[in-house]
Design goal:
The complex is a heterodimer of chains A (181) and B (361). Chain A has 4 helices and 2 strands, in the order αααββα. Chain A is mainly alpha-helical and 181 residues long. A two-stranded antiparallel ribbon of chain A has the order 1-2. In chain A, β1 and β2 form a beta hairpin. Chain B has 361 residues and is an alpha+beta fold. Chain B has 2 domains: 39 residues; 312 residues, Catalase core domain (Catalase HpII,  Chain A, domain 1). Chain B is built from 7 helices and 10 strands. In chain B, strands 1, 2, 3, 4, 5, 6, 7, 8, 9 and 10 form a 10-stranded antiparallel beta sheet that branches. In chain B, β6 and β7 form a beta hairpin. In chain B, α2 crosses α7. The longest helix of chain B is centred in the C-terminal third of the chain and has 38 residues. Classes of the chains: A mainly alpha (181), B alpha+beta (361). Chains A and B meet through α1 and α4 of A and α1, α2 and α7 of B.
Chain lengths: 181, 361
């Protein structure tokens, strides 16, 4: 029954890789839209390719989610806290899906394909539409800031569980580097 | 750690750790987003400067006035040894294009502008794209976006007083000898009476990449096949749309053709410096003919929605590290973002008033 205390390794791996990639994408994203420096062009290409990678990771993660029982939240938590935890988690999933999708659509609306590291192009979801680009470009920005806010809440809550409450929540997503002998 | 006498201080310490971590994370993000400045000249500041506090909603912030074009590029195939780019293999490639004049005013008189432009956008079924925006000057005035920003700032009249500081402009010119070639061009340039009789330059250099992965730095120019002529008598040279009317008349009789002349750099040419033209004796290859068949007003036509970003390049073409080239791409993107949003807003507003009218009937 020790499995229910902790997420399986696959889920942990995807979680931490996604975390690293998503946070990098957010930082690069808000920087590159202002910069006029030569790295900006490379950054935009990388942002798209890594965005595709994150999108795939989120889909893999959703499928993977059906193959294990997530550890239950500590029973000491109030109903409200349990609900808040569930809500932010769902919100994170929604944003992690909506954000790459809005980027993909926005690029198509501009008449351009999304390329994955120059290896292949993603199918075109919508045709060239200038006004739609206007909406989708704004949406991509709003979703980025929303995602950042939810990530801040998520990290804040994780640290609260780990450092203040010192319950089972944070360790359930951490790798155990010391063997239990 | 769980010693009960230390519990309260230990909790405070832990809260402090959380606070420092979270504050650091949030502040780092706000810094990345430019909320504290310190990021040099941004694309937003550049477009703000172009707007000069009087943005023309839904219009391009630079080269606001223009017309849409339809035509095709008849590639000679002579560039094929240098690039795998689809659009340079022998064949016909349709494009959407745009002629424009410099400046941010969409109603400026055509003949008053000192710069004219030709922009082309290619789309292939295999997913390749090529966009290029070319201007009448042969070179850029300055080498970096920061200096370009200073230059525009000095040359733009103060939005309140409507005046420019001539002594500062003189000092700027003196401090930037790299402007010499551009200024020489400006002095020698005589504007013709037609968009069709100007020569349009890529200004920045690009790389062509061939099958063996070899890179060749190039610049190109669209050279007109038509000879310059005085403006047709039935068009008044005081008409604000003189160039647009002239082009429409011309296209009623015949197509408009340009030769795409591609200059190959050699080792002594600096492809990252757009202020210096390459010597005349460099090898020039005629890559094909741009054939313009039709002209349309820009509002509501396809070219209006296109961002002629010079860094939209097909496989077989690559950007150089020219800082101006990269800055153009960044600034065009910001201009495009603003006008696309405004265009959507205008569309939504007109639909609303349309519905209100329909409802009132």
């Amino acid at each position: 029954m020790s499995n229910t205390k902790s997420f399986p390794t696959s889920a942990k791996l995807i979680h931490w890789i996604s975390a690293l990639l998503i946070i990098s994408l957010l930082f690069v994203g808000v920087s590159m839209i202002q910069s006029m420096a030569p790295w900006q062009h490379t950054a935009i290409k990388m942002h798209q390719s890594i965005g595709v990678l994150v999108f795939v990771l989120v889909l893999v993660r959703l499928v993977n989610r059906f193959f294990f029982t997530a550890p239950a939240l500590p029973s000491e938590l109030s109903r409200l806290q349990q609900l808040a935890a569930k809500f932010t988690q769902v919100l994170l999933y929604v944003l992690m899906l909506a954000q790459p999708l809005s980027g993909w659509l926005m690029r198509n609306a501009e008449g351009l394909p999304v390329s994955f590291f120059g290896l292949f192009q993603l199918p075109t979801l919508i045709g060239f539409n200038y006004q739609a680009f206007g909406v989708l470009r704004d949406l991509h920005g709003i979703l980025a800031w929303s995602l950042f806010v939810v990530i801040v809440l998520h990290i804040g809550a994780a640290l609260h569980h780990g450092l203040i409450r010192q319950d089972s929540v944070l360790p359930s997503m951490l790798f155990k580097f010391r063997s239990r002998k | 750690m769980s010693n009960s006498t230390n519990d309260s201080t230990s909790i405070i310490k832990r809260y402090a750790v959380i606070f420092v971590l979270m504050a650091g994370f949030v502040l780092a993000f706000l810094y990345a987003a430019g909320l504290f400045g310190g990021r040099g000249v941004t694309a937003q500041q550049f477009v703000n400067l172009q707007e000069n506090e009087k943005p023309n909603a839904s219009f391009r912030r630079a080269h606001a006035k223009g017309v849409c074009l339809q035509g095709e590029f008849v590639a000679s195939g002579l560039l094929a040894p240098f690039t795998t780019a689809e659009f340079f293999q022998k064949g016909n490639y349709p494009f959407i294009g745009r002629f424009s004049i410099g400046g941010g005013n969409p109603t400026a008189p055509d003949l008053a502008s000192g710069v004219r432009s030709l922009a082309l956008s290619f789309t292939s079924d295999s997913g390749q794209r090529w966009r290029t925006a070319m201007n009448t000057p042969t070179v850029m005035a300055v080498r970096t976006p920061e200096v370009f920003f200073q230059q525009i700032k000095l040359l733009t009249p103060d939005p309140k007083t409507g005046k420019r500081d001539e002594t500062k402009i003189k000092a700027f010119f003196a401090a930037h000898p790299e402007m010499a070639e551009f200024n020489q061009w400006k002095e020698d340039y005589v504007a013709s009476s037609s968009f069709a009789t100007e020569k349009y330059h890529s200004i920045n250099a690009f790389y062509l990449v061939n099958n063996n992965g070899e890179r060749q730095a190039v610049r190109w120019a669209m050279a007109p096949q038509a000879e310059p002529q005085p403006l047709d008598e039935n068009i008044s040279d005081s008409h604000p749309d003189a160039l647009q009317i002239e082009l429409a008349q011309r296209l009623e009789n015949d197509v408009v053709r340009f030769d795409m002349l591609v200059t190959l750099a050699n080792d002594s040419d600096d492809e990252n410096n757009p202020t210096v033209a390459w010597p005349e004796e460099r090898t020039v290859i005629n890559a094909g003919t741009v054939v313009i068949r039709a002209v349309e007003p820009q509002q509501g036509s396809a070219c209006n929605g296109i961002n002629f970003d010079p860094l939209v390049l097909p496989k077989g073409m690559e950007a150089t590290a020219d800082p101006i080239l990269n800055a153009r791409s960044a600034v065009y993107a910001e201009s495009y973002r603003r006008r696309a949003r405004e265009s959507f807003q205008q569309q939504a507003d007109s639909q609303k008033t349309g519905q209100q009218k329909a409802g009132a009937q």
